[in-house]
Structure formats: C-alpha cells, structure tokens
Write a structure and sequence with these properties.
Length: 193
Amino acid sequence: MFRRRVELHPLRKLRETFWPSAGWKRAIQYGWRRIWRLSGTPHAIAMGVAAGVFASCTPFFGFHILIAMLVAWILRGNLIASAIGTFVGNPLTFPAIWFIVYEVGRYMVGAPVGADPDIAETLQSDRAFDMILPLLVPLTVGAIPVGIVLGCVTYVVTRSGVEAYQLRRRRRLAERALVLFPDSQPPAGDMRE
C-alpha cells in the first residue's frame, strides 16, 4: 500500500537519503506531519519524540532506535514517535551533536585540555579498543546532559504542535458533524470556542 510503483535503484535510494528530490523543506514537513497525526495524547507523542532525540545524542550508533524505544517505554511515551525522533541524528547533524557532546563530556570528566587523540591513528592502531575508551567515556558522559536539554526543548515544541493540530482537527470534525447532522446537539467542551 505504501510502496513505490517502480522500485528505486540502490544508488538512487542512497542519494534520496542524503538529498531528497522533493527538497529538505518537504522532507521535514512530512516528518512533522507524521508526528502530529500519530494517535495518542500530546504528552505521550512529545515524550516519544524527546526520547528519540535523547537517544540520538548517545555514541552507541546502531542502537539509537532501541535506546529511544526503551526510554520512551520507561517514560510512557509513544514508541513510534520515539523511532521517528531518532531521525534528528543523521549524517548531517551527527558531527555537530558529537562535537558538543564530546566537549561537554570532557569538561564533566575533567580531561586535560591538550589531550585530543588523533582519531585516524586511534582506529589503525593494534590497541584500538584501549585508545577508543578515552573517546567513548566523554561521549557517553556528555550525552546525558546534552540529550536531556535537547529532549526537553523537543518535548515543548512537539507537544505544542501536536496540541494545536489535534485541536484544529477536533474543530473541523465538529463542524462537519454540524453540517451533516444539523439537528444534533453540538459537542461539549472546547469545540465551539
């Protein structure tokens, strides 16, 4: 039902991932509309998206959706919204997110200022795991406060957007019901405001 009529070539799919043919504005609008239309309370949807944003700040690449769903489940957020929220972390935003997370983590851990390891040398070394640990600890520690701040901001923005969308939708449905059934009583609550 939601598949393309003509399947895209794998190279075209890769290109669409990094540069959508309809443009970034359309892709972002589509994502926001998908979130607004989810069923659930505005709190649950916003909590799910915030959990996804929090998970995107962690250095555990490949496990972001699982982390987001676990956090959303614990906080009683929407699981689908949490998976959608992880799209905040993408190849365009990861460098900025991880730079900020790393710097905050280094500050929190108290790492020396001049102790920046060379990443290329780290990955090519025989003792790569021993050398990655100094990178992983600040990234993990810094992900917590940065993720909480970004999650809180995302929660407020998403909740207000979902509330506004659901209110408009209820009003439109109430107006349609009055047109279709003019003799019926208007619905109680904030529909006529």
